[in-house]
Amino acid sequence: MTDSSREAGRTAEHLRFVRRIYAMRSLGLGFGFFAVAGVLYEQHAGWGLWTLLFANGYLWPTLAYVLASRSRDPEYAEYRNLVIDSAMGGMWIAVMQFNIVPSALLAVMLSADKIGVGGWRFLVRTALAMLLTAAAVWTLIGFPFAPYSSMTVVLACLPFMFVYPMAISSAAYGLARKVVRQNKQLDQLSRTDPLTGLQNRLHWDDSATAAMTHCARSARNASLILIDVDHFKDINDFHGHQIGDAVLRRVAGILHGVVRLTDTASRIGGDEFALVLMNIEDEPARSIAERIRKAIEDARFDDAPALRCTVSIGLASTGPRTVSAAMWMRHADAALYQAKQRGRNQVVCADG
Ligand SMILES: Nc1nc2c(ncn2[C@@H]2O[C@H](COP(=O)(O)OP(=O)(O)OP(=O)(O)O)[C@@H](O)[C@H]2O)c(=O)[nH]1
């Protein structure tokens, strides 16, 4: 991945963050408006405060979105906006003269969403902004204190009290699901060879051990087929690496074609592949190996019409002599070595 595509990916991720916060802010401030409005109504507040409240509830979310999404660093700008949210919350708490229900509601909601976005450290920063603004505004308006909440105020708080926590929980649930999905994808990627799409060496041992365990439990046989491309270095040297890669992909495609759901095909080295065939006896396994050998011998390549490639194959079945996956592998490896020694392009079975 180039630096510029990495940068573009990061920016897209940051813009998604900005959009997510925009939705949450619109909802939170939209409903939070009513919680503060209940108190302003009882205070017979002037048009200045009402205008400010309206602007904070319904204009600020869009302004914050535009500022963050147009910024050079949308993520940083959005964190700054979140600090402004808390500062404005502090201002309303002081203006409401610490009316207990809406003030506590505002403080709790503005803290919960900050933890969700930036953790405890970010909460401390935003809580400080809230406290300082509350203190400054309270000083400015002469320290009025009226904590009693009437029924009207409580009722005005209800929509915010119900809707916003639901929205925070639903956003957290969505993120948790995304993390699970991404972990699955990462796990899948870490198991996959990018060139061929087959399982890679890393998880090959797990597959072989699982197959051995299954055979021991079910008293059935499995076959391990090791496939090595003959003179692959010469193919690379003569036709180039791209053709070499095409050969590896073709071998992988042929292996894909023979495996059943319970079998596994892996690329375990540069030009070396392994196939575990489950619940199969020697003869059918040998004929599958022979089919693979023949299919590769018959393969033709548009970009290198003269190219003929062959593979050597070693095959070993599980049986009383095979007590571990490592031993199974050694038997198949010895058979593969024999196939190479006897002139390549052939299948050799390990002695049962
Ligand atoms: N094109 C390509 N070549 C690779 C890749 N991985 C490993 N190789 C090459 O595969 C070659 C393997 O060569 P060797 O191990 O000498 O095997 P060989 O030439 O097939 O010899 P024999 O197995 O004895 O027939 C090396 O030249 C590696 O550079 C890959 O992903 N793509």
Strand numbers in spatial order across the main sheet: 1-3-4-2-5-6
Low-confidence stretches: none
How much of the sequence is in beta strands? 5-15%
Distance between the termini: 48 Å
Number of helices: 10
Q: What is the oligomeric state here?
A: single chain
Shape: elongated
Bound molecules: guanosine-5'-triphosphate
Helix- and strand-based class?
alpha/beta
Radius of gyration: 34 Å
The main β sheet shows up as: 6 strands, mixed
Number of domains: 2
Approximately how much helix is present in the residues? Answer: 55-70%
Strand and helix order: HHHHHEHEHHEEHEHE
Number of strands: 6
Mean of all residue-level pLDDT scores? 92
Catalytic activity: 2 GTP = 3',3'-c-di-GMP + 2 diphosphate
Protein name: diguanylate cyclase
Organism: Lysobacter firmicutimachus
GO biological process, one term: cell adhesion involved in single-species biofilm formation
Q: What does this entry look like structurally?
A:
It is a single chain. The protein has two domains: 187 residues, no CATH class; 151 residues, Reverse transcriptase/Diguanylate cyclase domain (Alpha-Beta Plaits). It has ten helices and six strands; from the N terminus they run αααααβαβααββαβαβ. It is an alpha/beta fold and 352 residues long. The chain is elongated. Helix 1 runs antiparallel to helix 2, helix 1 packs antiparallel against helix 5 and helix 8 packs antiparallel against helix 9. The model has no long low-confidence stretch (mean pLDDT 92). The protein starts with a helix and ends with a strand. The site of guanosine-5'-triphosphate has 15 residues, from strand 2, helix 7 and helix 8.
